[in-house]
Amino acid sequence: MAIRLGLGLPQAKQYDLGRDVVEVARAAEQTGYQSLWVFERVLFPERTKQGLYGIPGLPWPDFYRSIAEPLVVLSLAAAVTERARLGSSVLVAPLHGPVQLARALATLDAASRGRVVAGFGTGWSLDEYAAASVVPFEERGAALDELLDICAAVWGPDPVSYQGAHAVITEAEVGPKPARPIPVYLAAGNGRALDRVARRADGWPPTGRPPEQLAAVWRQLTEQAASYGRDAAALGFCVRANVRLTPAPVGDADRRPFVGTVEQIVADVAAHAEAGVHEVLIDLQNCARDGRELTDLAARVHADIRAAGV
Length: 310
Description:
By secondary structure, this protein is an alpha/beta fold. The chain is built from 9 helices and 13 strands. Strand 1, helix 1 and strand 2 form a beta-alpha-beta unit. The radius of gyration is 19 Å and the shape is globular. The mean pLDDT is about 95.
């Protein structure tokens, strides 16, 4: 079976959100993309002691200067599509009020007739945590666990009852309910975060690593999930491809995954499919100047991947 293909929706500063989101979403579904995705970036600090991903000295890319609110973008896409799944890769869960986030996702799933994939992570930006004022950065893992418990309660039958560190619901009706159980994907790189995926997630949405490394971690994850008595075969494996296109091929010795020509990007998708990845989220928005250019590029990439038999 061909690997599933998803497309990152336009959220960056160069796009006309009211026009480009709906046009790209509609065209992507018609092209054959099976899912549409958003990510979250709350702010761009002009002065920060923290580098990108928490790596000292690594600058934040200008691309992050203005990123549209992800659930608003997904809602715009939901209104003009019928089949494509609507995913987040990822929402930084502890930056949100947990009950409000659970309700927003349930509402979007009900409105889209069961198409939401809720991807969550804990994030890395101290500046974003300071701005959100929901939980301290040091409590991010516990906050994600509580969000998962709250989602299970809010998305489940009424009356809803829940008591945790940051929320108390005492026998209340909480609606609307999602159209079906919303699959939850959890970002994780190692340690306790990977164990949380094995114990609690419906899928894993990694990014930025060679396929052979991802395949090794995936084997570990599925073995852990099975050790908890879970059906490891039911877990989803969706890789985020943050594409950076170059006019000439990049030498294999120096090349990171999904950096290079369109032909090299197609080869990367094929390599990930060979490694057992179920779906690739192709984010091209940093490679285009507007929605029309993004639509055309997305159609070309999709056609080339399918023509390659992937």
